[in-house]
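seq:
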Amino acid sequence: VGGKISVYNNPIASLTMPNLEGVFGDFILENNYNLASLAMNNLEGVGGKISVLRNPNLDNNPIASLTMPNLEGVFGDFILENNYNLASLASLTMNNLENVYNNIDVENNPNLLSLAMPYLGNVGGSIIVLGNPNLASPTMNNLENVFGDFIVRYNDNLASLAMPNLEGVGGDISVMPDPGSCDLGVYAGRDQFGFC
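struct:
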């Protein structure tokens, strides 16, 4: 797609794009109150941002999932915000995502249990994981550099935080409350509140 894909205020319940490989603009999925599943199994790159915002029925049961297993790069922001029934980012399959050139913003997903991007290496902006009360253990094992801020706050059930290869953060590090088990690579013990 040479431009952007925008699915906004649409009554559809399922969206499947099996042959889509690239979007040169933004991919916007917002305010779709009936949407329960989204699959783009061959998507490899997005030239702009990915915004998955206010889709209250997007869930992770066997018939409702969000899948982008071949996505390798996002040249804008990756935003996952206010999706009230999304229970696990295991259903948001991004096992090949290596680079996000702007921000990763995961906010206010009250049923979110886990966040894993195992091959993510670099984030050109900030990582913000904020107000996900059931999130227990975000993991980005290959993350090396965040060029903006690293903020993990107000995730009430946070039990552990694992980013063992983290080498550089260009801005602030703010982790609260204390997750108990925290591995931020070279930054362990040096977040601004003294928790990790």
